[in-house]
Amino acid sequence: MKKFSILVTNDDGIFAPGILQLKDDLSQIGVVTVVAPISEKSAVGHAITLSDPLRVIEVERNGDFFGFGVNGTPADCVKLGIRCLMENKPDIIVSGINQGSNTAINIIYSGTVSAAAESVIMDVPAVAVSLTSYTSKDFSYAGKVARQISREVLRNGLPEGVLLNVNVPPIAEDEIEGVVPTRQGKGKYDEAFDKRTDPNNRTYYWLTGKRMILDFDNDIDDVVVMNNKVSVTPIHYDLTRYDFLEELNKWKLAP
Amino acid sequence: MKKFSILVTNDDGIFAPGILQLKDDLSQIGVVTVVAPISEKSAVGHAITLSDPLRVIEVERNGDFFGFGVNGTPADCVKLGIRCLMENKPDIIVSGINQGSNTAINIIYSGTVSAAAESVIMDVPAVAVSLTSYTSKDFSYAGKVARQISREVLRNGLPEGVLLNVNVPPIAEDEIEGVVPTRQGKGKYDEAFDKRTDPNNRTYYWLTGKRMILDFDNDIDDVVVMNNKVSVTPIHYDLTRYDFLEELNKWKLAP
């Protein structure tokens, strides 16, 4: 039987706990190659590195070779992994396990999801996996979910340009009440800047903010997670708002 | 009559030629505040700055106060402009004029478009404007288009969460054959990495690539631009692939 080839990446960096769990679990269903940023790259969105050269180092964890560290973004890691570091195109790319939720508006800021997006652009099916807590270090159930959903993707395939964005609540496995398809919520941040003065009397600003949930239907990603279920949202990158094209035809667009 | 309040930003940086043209043209329809990155931030995607403080400098161009320079991304500039630098929320945000096209897959890498996305997340209507050439310095017609489309947005409004992504071909005004609504194409890059060795004998990689156009319908952004027309695509950030939810319900998602 052919062994599946799996590329694993993340945005918390190659030394994060979530990617260690992910490699462990996915090694049970295939041969895993890790290509991940050397340092944390959270909230980088879908950035790619054009103005600097990329460099690669071989990284050990627990005394063994673990993977390739790259001085770039998660999207850079996917590009470089597929084009230069792996002999053949992988069968799937799995990104994570992210520390913190990637639901609602977070999806567009997320480096974790952008790695999966880069993957489907390169015609490799992809899954992004997040644990919806900034503090819990127990990635074990999220790892099992990542393995099962990856298995299903390898078995069934995904439509062109589609990835699965998975969010796992940080609770014990026997409290989980299901794994369900969802849609992206409209939740966003109630933000402010904390304005301060540095020791040289110059002003600087820190971004701060609280998450707001703005829609409460039972099939919304954030709502599902609040209800102790794992959320699985199919995501694509045709951003066209089709239902507005007709209205736009009536506008006087030419100067 | 109330004067419109307009926030202008970009990703080529506050000293780029395109943003000078944009401020000039939009000053004819309102009061313009410029908040833009101090240095070039192309291909940053929808990055925001969480790990560093943001700083602001006042920038002069041609001997007059021009705007606020920020050591962050285009999305940072929009957040900071609205929350800290402007007295009231602007009526519209216009991002550009970008040097180079933001069509098809480029939309998801684009700092120019991400500024407009951040704007609609904050409930301010937005327009992103690009000149589809990396070399032409004649932004005058693109500036006129930006002004006219901004006028229409101020008159008609936009649906919640929708921005307009405008791409202007780099040709003379009298060769332009129209300004038309379009949808995002599937075009992407045929990419490779140029692998080199530095003077210290260490390997590094440069990303290189050629644009490919992959769909040729007459309402595709890239096709419209090739046909000497201005492309206007309504864009939104609900990334859910709705038509795959039913299929996903049949999968065995739980481990």
Task: Reconstruct the topology from this structure.
The structure is a homodimer of 255-residue chains.
Chain A: E1 4-9, H1 17-26, E2 30-37, E3 56-61, E4 64-70, H2 74-85, E5 92-99, H3 106-109, H4 111-121, E6 126-131, H5 140-156, E7 163-168, E8 179-181, E9 188-197, E10 203-212, H6 221-226, E11 230-235, H7 245-248
Parallel strand pairs in A: 1-2, 1-5, 2-4, 5-6, 6-7, 8-11
Antiparallel strand pairs in A: 3-4, 7-11, 9-10
Helix pairs in contact in A: 1-5, 2-4
Structural description of this entry:
The structure is a homodimer of 255-residue chains. Chain A is an alpha/beta fold and 255 residues long. Chain A has seven helices and eleven strands. Chain A has helices spanning 17-26, 74-85, 106-109, 111-121, 140-156, 221-226, 245-248, and strands at 4-9, 30-37, 56-61, 64-70, 92-99, 126-131, 163-168, 179-181, 188-197, 203-212, 230-235. In chain A, strands 3-4-2-1-5-6-7-11-8 form a nine-stranded mixed sheet, sandwiched between helices. A two-stranded antiparallel sheet of chain A has the order 9-10. In chain A, strand 9 (188-197) and strand 10 form a beta hairpin. The first copy, chain A, is globular and about 55 Å long. The termini of chain A are far apart.
